[in-house]
Amino acid sequence: MKRINILLTIGCFFTLFLIQESYSQEFKTLDVSPHDIVYFRTNKVTPPKIKVLYGRPKKNGREIFGEVVPYGKIWRVGANEATEVVFYNDVVFGDSEVKAGTYVLYAIPDQDQWTLILSSNTDVWGTYEYEEKYDVARATAKVSKAEFMESFSIGFKDKGKHVNMVLAWDTTRVTTPIKILL
């Protein structure tokens, strides 16, 4: 009788182990376009004014603009999940006042200028759920050339009364001013 109870107990533990294993989380390999966060702060000890969460694809020898990122078509501004911008204060983006909050940043790239779009439809993957009806603001941004950048990057340059958000990849730089309203 004792032997049967031991065998049943072992059998139960083994069955529970198999069930648990079948429901356990499977981790994928490392993302080839990992996410990054960039903040704009007026100095290192002040609360942030802007935060951007974005995917960082690599060039990997590819022709980026006009090929991987086609001209004249909506782009998620990065990789994987759509790029999210958090404004902690109201801002002026392009010619539009935008309330503090979280938005998705899209772009329509062209060779000489881009249209940057803020959308209120957040928590989306890529551009699959982009709809113009959710556009909050659009801004035109000029394209320039600079040193080579392997991974797509976003940064900020403080210009006093406004801050420039700079998108950089390959040798392309796209800059748009954002005025923070206090």
Care to give the gist of this entry?
The chain is mostly beta strands and 182 residues long. The chain has one helix at residues 2-23; strands at 35-40, 50-55, 83-87, 91-93, 96-98, 101-108, 113-119, 135-158, 163-180. Strands 1-2-3-6-7-8-9-4-5 form a 9-stranded antiparallel beta sheet, with no helix packed on it.
List the helices and strands and how they pair.
Elements: H1 2-23, E1 35-40, E2 50-55, E3 83-87, E4 91-93, E5 96-98, E6 101-108, E7 113-119, E8 135-158, E9 163-180
Antiparallel strand pairs: 1-2, 2-3, 3-6, 4-5, 4-9, 6-7, 7-8, 8-9
Order the strands across the largest sheet as they lie in space: 1-2-3-6-7-8-9-4-5
Low-pLDDT runs of 5+ residues are: none
What is the global morphology? globular
Mean pLDDT: 89
> What is the distance, rounded to the nearest whole angstrom, between the alpha carbons of the first and last residues?
79 Å
Indicate the radius of gyration in whole angstroms.
23 Å
Please bin the fraction of helical residues: 10-25%
- Helix segment count? 1
Taken as a percent bin, the fraction of beta residues is 35-45%
The helix/strand order is: HEEEEEEEEE
State the secondary-structure class: mainly beta
Largest sheet: 9 strands, antiparallel
Number of strands: 9
